[in-house]
Amino acid sequence: MRLTNLDMDALRSFVTGLDAGSYARAADRLGRSTSAVSAQLKKLEEQAGAPLLRRSGRGLGLTGEGEVLLSYARRMLGLNDEAVAALHREPLQGWVRLGIQEDFGQSVLPQVLGQFAQAHPQVRIEGRIARNAELLDKVASGQLDLALAWDEGNAAAARIATVPLCWLSAADGGPHWHRNSDEPLPLIALEAPCLMRTLACEALDRRGIAWRLAFTSPSLGGLWAATAAGLGFALRTPIGLPTTLRALPPAAHGLPPLPSLGLALHRAPQQNSAPAAHLADIIEQALHASLPGGWLLR
User: Fold this and answer.
1) In this predicted model, what pLDDT tens digit does every residue of 162-174 receive, in sequence order?
2) 164 vs 74: CA distance, rounded Å
3) Rounded distance, CA 224 to CA 240, Å?
4) 3-class DSSP state for residue 70?
5) In the chain, N or C: fewer CB atoms in 10 Å?
6) Listed residue (48, 60, 43, 55) closest to 9, CA to CA
7) pTM greater than the 0.70 cutoff
Protein backbone atom coordinates (compact mmCIF):
# COMPACT_ATOMS: atom_id res chain seq x y z
CA MET A 1 0.00 0.00 0.00
CA ARG A 2 1.32 3.42 -0.93
CA LEU A 3 1.73 5.69 2.10
CA THR A 4 0.49 9.28 2.02
CA ASN A 5 2.72 12.07 3.34
CA LEU A 6 0.55 14.86 4.72
CA ASP A 7 1.67 18.33 3.70
CA MET A 8 3.05 20.20 6.71
CA ASP A 9 2.23 23.66 5.33
CA ALA A 10 -1.34 22.54 4.72
CA LEU A 11 -1.56 21.14 8.24
CA ARG A 12 -0.31 24.46 9.63
CA SER A 13 -2.95 26.37 7.68
CA PHE A 14 -5.61 23.92 8.88
CA VAL A 15 -4.69 24.36 12.56
CA THR A 16 -4.08 28.11 12.34
CA GLY A 17 -7.47 28.66 10.71
CA LEU A 18 -9.29 26.83 13.50
CA ASP A 19 -7.32 28.66 16.20
CA ALA A 20 -7.87 32.04 14.53
CA GLY A 21 -11.57 31.47 13.98
CA SER A 22 -11.46 31.96 10.22
CA TYR A 23 -9.20 31.18 7.30
CA ALA A 24 -9.10 34.83 6.26
CA ARG A 25 -7.38 35.62 9.57
CA ALA A 26 -5.22 32.53 9.16
CA ALA A 27 -4.03 33.79 5.76
CA ASP A 28 -3.07 37.08 7.38
CA ARG A 29 -1.15 35.36 10.17
CA LEU A 30 0.66 33.06 7.75
CA GLY A 31 1.46 35.79 5.24
CA ARG A 32 -0.46 34.06 2.45
CA SER A 33 -3.44 34.92 0.33
CA THR A 34 -6.84 33.51 1.25
CA SER A 35 -6.95 31.65 -2.04
CA ALA A 36 -3.59 30.01 -1.29
CA VAL A 37 -4.83 28.83 2.11
CA SER A 38 -8.03 27.50 0.51
CA ALA A 39 -5.95 25.58 -2.01
CA GLN A 40 -3.88 24.07 0.81
CA LEU A 41 -7.01 22.93 2.62
CA LYS A 42 -8.37 21.36 -0.55
CA LYS A 43 -5.08 19.54 -1.00
CA LEU A 44 -5.19 18.34 2.60
CA GLU A 45 -8.72 16.98 2.15
CA GLU A 46 -7.55 15.13 -0.96
CA GLN A 47 -4.67 13.61 1.00
CA ALA A 48 -6.99 12.69 3.88
CA GLY A 49 -9.53 11.20 1.49
CA ALA A 50 -12.42 12.85 3.34
CA PRO A 51 -13.91 16.31 3.95
CA LEU A 52 -12.41 17.94 7.04
CA LEU A 53 -14.57 21.06 7.40
CA ARG A 54 -18.26 21.81 7.29
CA ARG A 55 -20.32 24.96 7.45
CA SER A 56 -21.40 25.85 11.02
CA GLY A 57 -23.51 29.01 11.16
CA ARG A 58 -21.36 31.81 9.84
CA GLY A 59 -18.13 29.94 10.41
CA LEU A 60 -16.58 26.55 9.87
CA GLY A 61 -16.82 23.42 11.98
CA LEU A 62 -15.00 20.11 11.90
CA THR A 63 -16.28 16.87 10.46
CA GLY A 64 -15.55 13.67 12.35
CA GLU A 65 -12.45 13.13 10.20
CA GLY A 66 -11.41 16.73 10.83
CA GLU A 67 -11.55 16.25 14.60
CA VAL A 68 -9.34 13.17 14.33
CA LEU A 69 -6.82 14.94 12.11
CA LEU A 70 -6.69 18.07 14.28
CA SER A 71 -5.30 16.17 17.25
CA TYR A 72 -2.59 14.55 15.12
CA ALA A 73 -1.86 17.83 13.32
CA ARG A 74 -1.09 19.66 16.55
CA ARG A 75 1.29 16.92 17.64
CA MET A 76 3.01 16.74 14.25
CA LEU A 77 3.48 20.50 14.06
CA GLY A 78 4.73 20.64 17.64
CA LEU A 79 7.31 17.95 16.99
CA ASN A 80 8.35 19.58 13.72
CA ASP A 81 8.80 22.98 15.37
CA GLU A 82 10.68 21.45 18.27
CA ALA A 83 13.09 19.67 15.91
CA VAL A 84 13.72 22.80 13.83
CA ALA A 85 14.26 24.90 16.95
CA ALA A 86 16.72 22.37 18.40
CA LEU A 87 18.77 22.52 15.21
CA HIS A 88 18.85 26.28 14.78
CA ARG A 89 19.08 27.91 18.17
CA GLU A 90 21.40 28.08 21.12
CA PRO A 91 20.49 25.53 23.80
CA LEU A 92 18.10 26.92 26.40
CA GLN A 93 19.58 27.46 29.84
CA GLY A 94 18.24 28.57 33.18
CA TRP A 95 15.37 27.20 35.20
CA VAL A 96 11.60 27.15 35.29
CA ARG A 97 9.21 26.58 38.21
CA LEU A 98 6.08 24.58 37.37
CA GLY A 99 3.04 23.88 39.51
CA ILE A 100 0.44 21.32 38.54
CA GLN A 101 -2.95 20.38 39.94
CA GLU A 102 -3.18 16.99 41.65
CA ASP A 103 -5.51 15.54 38.99
CA PHE A 104 -2.75 15.79 36.36
CA GLY A 105 0.13 14.50 38.48
CA GLN A 106 0.09 11.03 36.94
CA SER A 107 -1.55 11.60 33.56
CA VAL A 108 0.29 14.67 32.22
CA LEU A 109 3.29 15.50 34.40
CA PRO A 110 5.58 12.55 33.49
CA GLN A 111 5.02 13.09 29.75
CA VAL A 112 5.58 16.85 29.98
CA LEU A 113 8.70 16.70 32.13
CA GLY A 114 10.22 13.88 30.12
CA GLN A 115 9.70 15.65 26.80
CA PHE A 116 10.99 18.97 28.10
CA ALA A 117 14.07 17.47 29.79
CA GLN A 118 14.99 15.61 26.62
CA ALA A 119 14.63 18.72 24.45
CA HIS A 120 16.30 21.13 26.90
CA PRO A 121 18.77 19.20 29.10
CA GLN A 122 20.45 22.39 30.35
CA VAL A 123 17.26 23.79 31.88
CA ARG A 124 16.49 22.93 35.50
CA ILE A 125 12.87 22.29 36.38
CA GLU A 126 11.42 22.81 39.82
CA GLY A 127 8.07 21.03 39.96
CA ARG A 128 5.32 21.13 42.56
CA ILE A 129 2.04 19.20 42.79
CA ALA A 130 -0.40 21.07 44.98
CA ARG A 131 -4.00 22.11 45.52
CA ASN A 132 -5.61 24.75 43.33
CA ALA A 133 -5.61 27.65 45.81
CA GLU A 134 -1.93 27.17 46.66
CA LEU A 135 -0.92 27.06 43.00
CA LEU A 136 -2.80 30.26 42.16
CA ASP A 137 -1.29 32.07 45.16
CA LYS A 138 2.25 31.04 44.21
CA VAL A 139 1.79 32.10 40.58
CA ALA A 140 0.37 35.47 41.62
CA SER A 141 3.31 36.07 43.98
CA GLY A 142 5.90 34.99 41.39
CA GLN A 143 6.99 31.87 43.30
CA LEU A 144 5.91 29.75 40.31
CA ASP A 145 6.40 30.62 36.63
CA LEU A 146 3.55 28.41 35.39
CA ALA A 147 0.70 26.47 36.93
CA LEU A 148 -1.76 24.09 35.31
CA ALA A 149 -4.82 24.59 37.49
CA TRP A 150 -8.57 25.06 37.47
CA ASP A 151 -9.72 28.48 36.32
CA GLU A 152 -11.41 30.47 39.08
CA GLY A 153 -12.14 33.49 36.88
CA ASN A 154 -8.60 34.77 36.38
CA ALA A 155 -8.83 36.89 33.23
CA ALA A 156 -5.06 36.67 32.69
CA ALA A 157 -5.08 32.87 32.52
CA ALA A 158 -4.95 31.09 29.18
CA ARG A 159 -7.93 28.73 29.34
CA ILE A 160 -7.24 25.50 27.46
CA ALA A 161 -10.31 23.36 28.06
CA THR A 162 -13.68 23.15 29.75
CA VAL A 163 -13.92 19.93 31.75
CA PRO A 164 -17.22 18.42 32.99
CA LEU A 165 -17.72 17.79 36.69
CA CYS A 166 -19.34 14.56 37.84
CA TRP A 167 -20.57 12.79 40.94
CA LEU A 168 -18.53 9.72 41.82
CA SER A 169 -19.25 6.51 43.67
CA ALA A 170 -17.65 3.12 44.14
CA ALA A 171 -17.58 1.08 40.94
CA ASP A 172 -19.15 -1.96 42.62
CA GLY A 173 -22.03 -0.20 44.32
CA GLY A 174 -21.63 2.71 46.68
CA PRO A 175 -23.46 4.16 49.66
CA HIS A 176 -27.11 3.24 50.21
CA TRP A 177 -28.61 6.71 49.90
CA HIS A 178 -31.48 8.06 47.83
CA ARG A 179 -33.09 11.46 47.49
CA ASN A 180 -36.21 10.65 49.52
CA SER A 181 -34.40 9.08 52.44
CA ASP A 182 -34.27 10.73 55.86
CA GLU A 183 -30.49 10.43 55.91
CA PRO A 184 -28.29 13.29 54.66
CA LEU A 185 -26.11 12.57 51.66
CA PRO A 186 -22.65 11.34 52.74
CA LEU A 187 -20.08 13.60 51.04
CA ILE A 188 -16.40 12.84 50.57
CA ALA A 189 -14.20 15.86 49.96
CA LEU A 190 -10.72 17.27 50.28
CA GLU A 191 -9.88 19.45 53.25
CA ALA A 192 -10.92 23.09 52.90
CA PRO A 193 -10.19 25.30 51.10
CA CYS A 194 -11.15 23.23 48.06
CA LEU A 195 -12.86 24.53 44.92
CA MET A 196 -14.70 21.28 44.17
CA ARG A 197 -15.77 20.83 47.79
CA THR A 198 -17.34 24.29 47.60
CA LEU A 199 -19.05 23.48 44.28
CA ALA A 200 -20.46 20.22 45.68
CA CYS A 201 -21.89 21.91 48.78
CA GLU A 202 -23.40 24.77 46.75
CA ALA A 203 -25.01 22.35 44.26
CA LEU A 204 -26.57 20.29 47.05
CA ASP A 205 -27.75 23.39 48.94
CA ARG A 206 -29.42 24.83 45.83
CA ARG A 207 -31.48 21.64 45.47
CA GLY A 208 -32.31 21.49 49.17
CA ILE A 209 -30.45 18.19 49.66
CA ALA A 210 -29.19 17.69 53.21
CA TRP A 211 -25.59 16.47 53.39
CA ARG A 212 -22.87 15.60 55.86
CA LEU A 213 -19.13 15.27 55.52
CA ALA A 214 -18.53 11.54 55.74
CA PHE A 215 -14.80 11.71 55.04
CA THR A 216 -12.23 14.46 54.45
CA SER A 217 -8.76 13.95 53.07
CA PRO A 218 -5.68 16.15 52.58
CA SER A 219 -4.87 14.37 49.31
CA LEU A 220 -6.59 13.11 46.18
CA GLY A 221 -5.42 9.57 46.88
CA GLY A 222 -7.33 9.54 50.17
CA LEU A 223 -10.47 10.84 48.43
CA TRP A 224 -10.25 8.05 45.82
CA ALA A 225 -9.78 5.39 48.51
CA ALA A 226 -12.69 6.55 50.66
CA THR A 227 -15.03 6.77 47.67
CA ALA A 228 -13.98 3.32 46.43
CA ALA A 229 -14.72 1.95 49.91
CA GLY A 230 -18.33 3.11 49.57
CA LEU A 231 -18.21 5.73 52.33
CA GLY A 232 -20.01 8.35 50.28
CA PHE A 233 -20.18 10.43 47.11
CA ALA A 234 -17.42 12.65 45.77
CA LEU A 235 -17.36 15.41 43.18
CA ARG A 236 -14.50 15.54 40.71
CA THR A 237 -13.78 15.47 36.98
CA PRO A 238 -13.31 12.26 34.94
CA ILE A 239 -9.56 13.00 34.64
CA GLY A 240 -7.38 10.35 36.25
CA LEU A 241 -10.41 8.44 37.50
CA PRO A 242 -9.36 5.07 39.03
CA THR A 243 -11.10 1.93 37.80
CA THR A 244 -12.47 1.46 41.33
CA LEU A 245 -14.79 4.45 40.81
CA ARG A 246 -17.62 5.30 38.43
CA ALA A 247 -19.28 8.53 37.34
CA LEU A 248 -22.99 8.70 38.16
CA PRO A 249 -25.78 10.10 35.96
CA PRO A 250 -27.14 12.80 38.32
CA ALA A 251 -30.84 12.47 37.48
CA ALA A 252 -30.88 8.69 37.94
CA HIS A 253 -29.47 8.99 41.47
CA GLY A 254 -31.34 12.07 42.71
CA LEU A 255 -28.20 14.22 42.54
CA PRO A 256 -28.07 17.80 41.28
CA PRO A 257 -26.66 18.55 37.81
CA LEU A 258 -23.18 20.00 37.69
CA PRO A 259 -21.44 22.65 35.59
CA SER A 260 -18.16 22.36 33.75
CA LEU A 261 -14.89 23.76 35.06
CA GLY A 262 -12.30 25.73 33.11
CA LEU A 263 -8.75 24.39 32.92
CA ALA A 264 -6.12 27.06 32.42
CA LEU A 265 -2.39 27.59 32.20
CA HIS A 266 -1.68 30.35 34.69
CA ARG A 267 1.47 32.45 34.24
CA ALA A 268 3.31 34.62 36.71
CA PRO A 269 3.08 38.40 36.14
CA GLN A 270 5.67 39.64 33.63
CA GLN A 271 6.76 36.06 32.98
CA ASN A 272 8.49 35.99 29.60
CA SER A 273 11.45 33.64 30.00
CA ALA A 274 12.21 31.36 27.07
CA PRO A 275 12.28 28.14 29.18
CA ALA A 276 8.84 28.93 30.64
CA ALA A 277 7.43 29.70 27.18
CA HIS A 278 8.70 26.40 25.76
CA LEU A 279 7.39 24.43 28.72
CA ALA A 280 3.99 26.10 28.29
CA ASP A 281 3.94 24.98 24.64
CA ILE A 282 4.69 21.37 25.61
CA ILE A 283 1.96 21.39 28.28
CA GLU A 284 -0.62 22.65 25.78
CA GLN A 285 0.43 20.02 23.22
CA ALA A 286 0.15 17.26 25.84
CA LEU A 287 -3.35 18.36 26.83
CA HIS A 288 -4.51 18.61 23.22
CA ALA A 289 -3.27 15.07 22.69
CA SER A 290 -4.78 13.58 25.87
CA LEU A 291 -8.10 15.34 26.50
CA PRO A 292 -11.29 14.63 24.51
CA GLY A 293 -11.74 17.03 21.60
CA GLY A 294 -15.12 18.21 22.86
CA TRP A 295 -13.47 19.65 26.00
CA LEU A 296 -10.79 21.65 24.19
CA LEU A 297 -11.07 25.32 23.34
CA ARG A 298 -9.67 25.93 19.87
Assistant:
1) 999 999 999 987 7
2) 23
3) 10
4) helix
5) N
6) 43
7) no
